[in-house]
Amino acid sequence: MNHQEKALELFKNKFQCSQAVFAAFAAELGVDETTALKISSGFGGGMCCGEVCGAVAGALMAIGLKYGHAQVHDSESKNSTNQKVMEMVSQFKSVNGSIICRELLGYDLTDKRELAVINEKNLFTVFCPKMVASAVDIAETII
Hints:
By secondary structure, the protein is mainly α. It has ten helices and no strands. It starts with a helix and ends with a helix.
């Protein structure tokens, strides 16, 4: 199963977008699936408030896991990681128009009326898998 298939399967099975994307890469980066799902569980729905898309956040976690710095003075790794993060964000914006959940959805999930519309239109089921797939596809070119 490739990264996209894994991510979409997890998302279809009711894991959040952030969890689906991060967990799709985690095992090959040395993190077991359960740990990956737990780490990324608070980032779906733009941190539950419509901010940065959870699929993007999951991809950024995977990028950080692979390339991130763990030593204060490792400016080379820090700069390299920051470049990869900016590349991920730039490509996602270019393809999808934004990295902000509420802008992508066209509705604010923190507003009860708008959340009702999101649910009525099944956007989490119909639209969000496209964002998961997009984030995975872009992350694959970086990771």
